[in-house]
Amino acid sequence: MERTTLDMWVGAFVVGGLVALLILAFKVGNLGGYDGSETYKVYGEFDNIGGLKIKAPVKSSGVVIGRVSAIQFDNTTFRAHVEMRLSKNYQFPKDTSAAILTSGLLGEQYIGLEAGGDEENLENGDKFKLTQSAIVLEQLIGQALFSKAADEGDNKSAVK
Amino acid sequence: MPHRKVGFGLSSIGHAVVNGVSRLGFASRFFLVTLVSSGASFRRIHLTIREIYFTGVMSLIIILVSGLFVGMVLGLQGYETLQKYGSESALGSLVALSLVRELGPVLAALLFASRAGSAITAEIGLMKATEQLSAMEMMAVDPISRVVAPRFWAGVISMPLLAAMFSAIGVFGGYLVGVVFIGVDEGSFWSQMQAAVDFRQDIVNGVIKSVVFGIAVTAIALFEGYDAPPTAEGVSHATTRTVVTSALVVLGLDFILTVFMFRGV
Amino acid sequence: MPAENLVEISDLNFTYGKRPILKGINMKIPRGKLVAIMGLSGCGKTTTLRLIGGAIKPTTGSVRVAGKEVGELDTEDLYKMRRKMGMLFQFGALFTDLSVYENVAFQMREHTDLPETVIRDLVMMKLHAVGLLGAHKLMPSELSGGMARRVALARAIALDPMLMMYDEPFAGLDPISLSVIGNLIRRLNDALGATSILVTHDIQESLKIVDYVYFMADGVVVAEGSAEDIKASKLPFVHQFVWGEIDGPVSFHYPSPPYRKDLLLEPQNSYAA
What we know:
heterotrimer; A: alpha/beta; 2 domains; eight-stranded mixed sheet; 8 strands; 31% strand
């Protein structure tokens, strides 16, 4: 085979392979996105994080503005200590609340931020003052049963 | 007499073990000599480029077609199982992780061994049988440096590229079946995948695996060809041995590498 | 330059594993001469060639080429020596992935820094010498046996070696090609001022062209002499070989128990009790 044709095919092959690797890295994997742009760290303490995972999105009004970067257990407060990295493009007031929400009915869990009204903004290393833990199904059912039983009790006493 | 047969059986096992060990020793020496003689493969890069064509480019079709089908099957089977738990949105993660971590490197290596590996063994075996390697030696050209080393490096370079292409087209196959045909949500397919597949953990480890497999498969193919008895029968047995040995070594190495890479994740 | 011997073999012994292949050989190949080594298959002729070329080392004894002991050369010196040798392998051993041109140019590309134009001229010159100038674009798979042999010859003389070795160059050729190759071997030897060693069992062609013959059987030299001496030799083995007699020192029958025993039909297995 002609030297130049051969070189062309091999070149195309190598380029194809590298393109495949790039596709895997960026489209399939999580390279790029918030690992690249500037971020600042904030923390939140939760009683229960439910199914929250590292790299879960942090959203406000449904828009992704950051990612969960670390989840640890605080042995002194006995709560979950969640570290998040927010994009520097977005600033939030110091009394913003963080809640663990579920996307859809049984989908993945994420952190939703509800902006507060404080004049000062959260800075690198600040902690959320208000947090809301994930809804745990058993507790929900327990509450429903308890309140149903309480209602019946009230009705009975009302009838009497 | 029974104990005579037992004696004979034991001694032939003993012979086989001794033969196997000395063959392994010879193979290791051969591998080291190949590495040491690799200067020409890079100084005269055209030698290596030519071999990349014959091992890598010629394997493209089988890799791409197989990758597509594997991805599509993963999409189908994955959906079947996940939808029982209402977790179809995790299909993207399932397809991508299976491919990038395991199926891409391993299957691409097995296919490479069958197609390119056996071709290398047959070619080198035939060159030995027709005295081409001796002729080269008599012309004061080192056959290891001129014939063996370029093929080795071509295999090591081609393997990770082929594995990446296998995984990429496999993911596309899963997408095709899951999103386009079955109707899983496109957004969650990709976003859950991107959340689940970590660059360092999964993709880099997958690439490392495919490089290791490339070294193993190409080295086995070259050795079997070089060591083959210079007859038609000898060469044909050698090509079979290449495919079988490569398969076993790849699967064994995969287990060892997986234990080191994915333990505790 | 004194007409010394280019190749001197003294008391050469070679054993492969436990089998003795060469049992004390002595040969002298003078410069500029065409010498044949003849004998039956398996008598050690090809082994002798490989020892001269340094592909294997003697068990005992000496092989000297141009005064140097081949078995004691290190890799670099051995390669230097081999550049002055050309070898034509049985059936050619052309590189199947290269064209005829590339095959002949192989040594020039590997060992010299000659520019492409010079290489082209040299390649064409060598191909012309063997009569295959028009075939330079063909691939080895497209050549007939005789043509492949000639290309291999052109390849072997590419760097004008001082010693040419031919391993069964006449094997499997048609009568015309036989003559052509024989003719080329003689002419090239004289034109290049080279020394040639011809390993063969083809009597007719070789006796036409050689200066001297060594006869080997069972790992020893049994006879030697000029072409005329050999033809006139009364030695039983040489006579049988030269005239192609069916029976003689090399017997027709493979060793076996007497035929009568077989004819009397002694039973192999005892069916009858």
